[in-house]
Write a structure and sequence with these properties.
The protein contains six helices and no strands. The protein has helices at residues 3-36, 56-81, 84-102, 125-154, 158-176, 184-212.
Length: 213
């Protein structure tokens, strides 16, 4: 292996490590905040709402840093899997997280303290952009799963192909199906499901491609 090839391999592995750690970083930072922030309820509030109120900068930074890490992982996956489509789609997911950091979700249902109880009947422009960024981001994440599934299938990796395809379906169902159920806890549970599945898929895919690299 030439020094150029060796350097390229090291770079790809470094980028893929971003995909291994980003989910743990995002969830750990969010869950710790959820336990220590007054008024936050995991059954009524999404992690996005942590960007509001005193200390909200922590979740804002969490979104921005993790968005950059996802983009790094996207570059690594594109290199090793040789799929520009997978890289672009996953990069779009990362960009949506950065957009979410710039446009926080609206306060809701008693959080932060002082916010009226219940779901607001209106949405601010900032909140609408945050919601749109989330929808686009999760669509891109699901599409990335499907593209990776196709690439893995072509490269005779049936187990990873099935994992990626099922993960893509799970992300779609988790994020969008609760929209049809007018119950707050269902929507929150769906988002949690989509987020956890998405991060787990990215970690497993990145680990698999690191071994190949």
């Amino acid at each position: 292996m030439s020094s150029v090839e060796s350097g390229s391999t090291r770079t790809a592995i470094t980028l893929l490590r971003c995909g291994v750690v980003v989910g743990v970083l995002y969830l750990t930072t969010g869950v710790v905040q959820g336990f220590v922030r007054d008024g936050f309820d995991f059954g009524r509030h999404a992690l996005s709402h942590l960007a509001n109120g005193p200390g909200g900068w922590v979740q804002t930074a969490n979104f921005a840093v993790c968005g950059l890490l996802v983009i790094g992982a996207a570059l690594g996956i594109a290199r090793v899997l040789q799929s520009r489509a997978a890289g672009w789609l996953l990069g779009c997911f990362g960009a949506s997280m950065i957009a979410a950091s710039l446009f926080p979700a609206d306060p809701v249902d008693g959080f932060p303290p002082g916010t009226p109880p219940g779901v607001p009947t209106t949405m601010s422009t900032t909140g609408l952009i945050h919601f749109a960024a989330g929808g686009i981001g999760f669509l891109a994440l699901a599409a990335a799963c499907f593209v990776v599934a196709r690439a893995m299938s072509r490269q005779k990796q049936p187990s990873m192909a099935r994992l990626s395809f099922i993960s893509g379906l799970a992300v779609l169902v988790g994020f969008f199906a609760p929209v049809a159920i007018p119950v707050v806890w269902a929507g929150i549970a769906g988002i949690w499901f989509a987020v956890v599945v998405g991060w787990a898929w990215l970690a497993l895919t990145s680990t698999h491609l690191m071994r190949r690299a």
